[in-house]
Task: structure prediction
Amino acid sequence: MYVCHCSVVTDRDILEAIANGARCIADVARVTGAGRTCGNCVESMRDLVCKHCPVRAERTTERPAERELGVAGAAR
Ligand code: FES
Result:
């Protein structure tokens, strides 16, 4: 299933990123490119990270890092 239509990123891509060490949506955005255009996928990315991240790091809600990395929709 496509999560980010702008960057053509699927839920499998995001789960793979998490399996390879991504621990927050900024990590997932950096690895996959998702979330950098319209931002409509950011909440779905957040849900996947929160549901599947083996370590629920507090970084998942660290909005300044999201902004710093240019994740679209971070200010919502
Ligand atoms: S749908 Fe992911 S940035 Fe637009």
In short: The longest strand covers residues 2-4. The pocket of FE2/S2 (inorganic) cluster is lined by residues 4-7, 34-41, 72 (CB under 6 Å).
